[in-house]
């Protein structure tokens, strides 16, 4: 399983759904639909999304610095 980090590619807003999709081996579109459907239910889903957006690190690039 991959580390939980927000990817630089495939983001729609913050990359949280894309990160969770990579972690659990599903497509980002599926994870977004699951999130949207869960927002119809009572609970703190939107606050959890915001918290993950803040807490999850952004994926590092493999850029090298030329001296």
From TrEMBL:
It is a single-pass membrane protein. Residues 4-59 form the Phage shock protein PspC N-terminal domain. InterPro entries: Phageshock_PspC_N (IPR007168), PspC (IPR052027). The chain crosses the membrane at residues 33-56. Pfam families: PspC. It comes from the Bacteria. GO terms for cellular component: plasma membrane. It is found in: Cell membrane. Keywords: Cell membrane, Membrane, Transmembrane, Transmembrane helix. This is PspC domain protein.
